[in-house]
Amino acid sequence: MRDRHDLTLQALARIERKLDLVMQHLDIRDYAPPEPDTMGEVRDLVRRGKKIQAIKVYRELTGVGLKEAKDAVEQIEAGY
């Protein structure tokens, strides 16, 4: 169940990133207050090629095991 939940959250994050790009391209401003981005640090570490650190941070944020965190980070990595 947790894996499915994590996959759903990751899919939603990808959709939100794509929507942000479309809105930026069309110069549409979102005036709602920004929501906290708990996975921003993980994505940043993945972008910088620091996969092990990203896995560690993901585990700290979510409380999942090593395998689940590794799988999730690899999915984040595949999305870039």
TrEMBL record:
Keyword field: Ribonucleoprotein, Ribosomal protein
Would you say which domain of life the source belongs to? Bacteria
Residue ranges of domain Large ribosomal subunit protein bL12 C-terminal in the record: 49-76
Q: Does this entry carry the keyword Ribosomal protein?
A: yes
What Pfam families would the database entry show?
A: Ribosomal_L12
Q: Which stretches are annotated as coiled coil?
A: none
Q: Which GO terms describe its cellular component?
A: ribosome
Identification of the protein by name: Ribosomal protein L7/L12
Organism of origin is Glycomyces rhizosphaerae
For this protein's source organism, the top of the classification is:
Bacteria, Bacillati, Actinomycetota, Actinomycetes, Glycomycetales
